[in-house]
Design brief:
Order of helices and strands: HHHHHHHHHEEHHHH
Shape: globular
Number of helices: 13
Distance between the termini: 75 Å
Number of domains: 2
Radius of gyration: 29 Å
Strand content: under 5%
């Protein structure tokens, strides 16, 4: 073997050792790709978070501009403290009661979050839902807060469905009963007359009765419709849904009732509140006012002064909408701060 061949062999072995060492030190192309994808995803989540907070801030400012803060302050100052405290107590009871809705979802999904955590998530979502719409409050915040604690997207969807079903089941029964047996005389300019209201009431009662009947007789407790499956509770749980939701709607009506300076029958206040829930879809309401305010003004102005009625409604919005939103925003920011201080792979405890 010649000296040149030996040198070539040594150089080849040295070259292989260098390449091997370089491969051990330098990341492979596959690892680089995975790393770049991970970095891209982290930046995408950061950008999405910034956009989310920007949208929330914009909606908060927009919502604040639609409220006459001077009238709200004057109305609150004009109320006797016992009346105002009674309204606040009813509002607190309503929000606490609604916060238990997701506990039914926990019962059916079997997730391990604690009762306090579930109620906090529901309260935050409900307060944002009232002020900023269901897309942010009912869906986006629920998914974000639950997923941060290890609850899967499928279970979040089931929790949301159960909560929405609970809320509207009580509405169907109360509205159906009121529209059928104690219908109000509606303004002639509305496209919704007494006969239509009666038919709507009967339809709502029929839908609620069908739901309860299905829960009672179903063997699988699953309802399939056009490729979608709805998980049904047992009859006792369905009746609990009715009781919880009806109580909540009655509490909401009670807030408006105690704030009205001239006492109007509670059944009348409840009827107007329930009509307001559907008036924006099937009736013509004056522009420039919210649906709730427009319906109350149209139906109750003959019985009391418009200024007093608007003052009561603005105070109701301050007590039931704005004040809980401020509390919910604080809780949400605290939750986000806690999340950022924990490892990304560790869900928050229940």
């Amino acid at each position: 073997m010649t000296t040149r061949t030996l040198r070539t062999g040594k150089a080849s072995r040295a070259s292989r050792r260098v390449r091997s060492a370089f491969r051990r030190i330098a990341p492979s192309r596959k690892n680089l790709t995975a790393h770049s994808k991970s970095a891209w995803w982290r930046w995408a989540k950061r950008i999405g978070t910034v956009i989310f907070f920007s949208v929330v801030a914009w909606l908060l400012v927009t919502n604040a501009r639609n409220v006459d803060w001077a009238d709200v302050g004057s109305a609150i100052k004009a109320y006797p403290w016992p009346v105002l405290m009674a309204a606040c107590a009813l509002a607190a009871c309503s929000h606490v009661l609604y916060s238990t809705y997701d506990l039914l979802g926990r019962y059916y999904t079997g997730h391990a979050l604690g009762t306090g955590t579930v109620m906090k998530i529901t309260f935050i979502s409900y307060a944002f839902n009232l002020n900023l719409g269901s897309l942010i409050g009912g869906i986006a915040l629920r998914y974000r807060l639950y997923s941060r604690r290890g609850v899967g997207a499928g279970d979040v969807a089931r929790i949301l469905s159960m909560s929405m079903l609970t809320n509207w089941l009580g509405y169907f029964i109360l509205a159906g009963t009121v529209f059928t047996f104690w219908p109000l005389k509606l303004p002639d300019s509305w496209k919704l007359d007494e006969d239509t209201l009666l038919a709507l009431g009967l339809a709502l009662l029929a839908a609620a009765a069908a739901y309860l009947f299905t829960c009672a007789v179903s063997l699988t407790h699953h309802l399939r419709f056009r490729g979608h499956t709805l998980e049904l509770p047992t009859l006792p749980v369905a009746l609990l849904q009715v009781a919880m939701s009806c109580a909540n709607w009655l509490l909401i009506a009670g807030i408006v009732y105690v704030l009205l300076p001239e006492r109007i029958g509670f059944s009348v206040v409840l009827s107007v509140l329930l009509i307001a829930a559907v008036a924006g879809v099937i009736a013509h309401v004056p522009a420039g006012l919210g649906v709730l305010e427009a319906v109350f003004v149209a139906l109750l102005t003959p019985q009391m002064a418009t200024g007093q009625l608007l003052a009561a409604l603005l105070t109701y919005r301050a007590v039931y909408y704005i004040a809980p939103l401020i509390v919910a925003l604080g809780l949400y920011l605290m939750t986000e701060a806690r999340t950022r201080t924990r490892p990304r792979t560790s869900p928050l405890p229940g």
